[in-house]
Amino acid sequence: MIIAVATEDEMVAQHFGRCPEYTLYKLSAGAVDEKKVIPNPGHEPGFLPGYLAAMGVNCIIAGGMGQRAVSLFQAENIETFVGISGPVRGVIEAYLAGDLQPGISSCEHREGGHSCC
Questions:
Q1: Which tens digit of pLDDT belongs to each residue from 49-92?
Q2: How far apart are the C-alpha atoms of 4 and 31, rounded to whole Å?
Q3: By CB distance 3.0 to 4.6 Å, which of 15, 64, 80, 100 could disulfide with 106?
Q4: Domains present along the chain, CATH in parentheses
Q5: pTM for this model (two decimals)
Q6: SS (H, E, C) 13-62
Q7: Distance separating alpha carbons of residues 15 and 83, to the nearest angstrom
């Protein structure tokens, strides 16, 4: 299993598409096997779900994303956790412990654009 965390300065980024990078964690047997940081290739509507799916990502964690992005990830069989904040390391530890609880997305997409907290 591979988890991608939208990352900014080792914290969970509040907008998955506009974060500077993604921290990828390859998990097996309930532990981290490998950690890799990749730059965000750019925010282009509809691109990132397929891009991350091609890398084998099964789950994405972010502070926020719009409903269209959630739907595109679901179409790629990628689980999404939004409303997440804090240090990336702590978030991964919570995920491994089964304690990561999604919340309200920090990014609201509306007609004519979006606003991110």
A1: 999 999 999 999 999 988 888 999 999 999 999 999 999 999 99
A2: 15
A3: 64
A4: 2-116 (3.30.420.130)
A5: 0.88
A6: CCCCCCCCEEEEEEEECCEEEEEEEEECCCCCCCHHHHHHHHCCCCEEEC
A7: 10
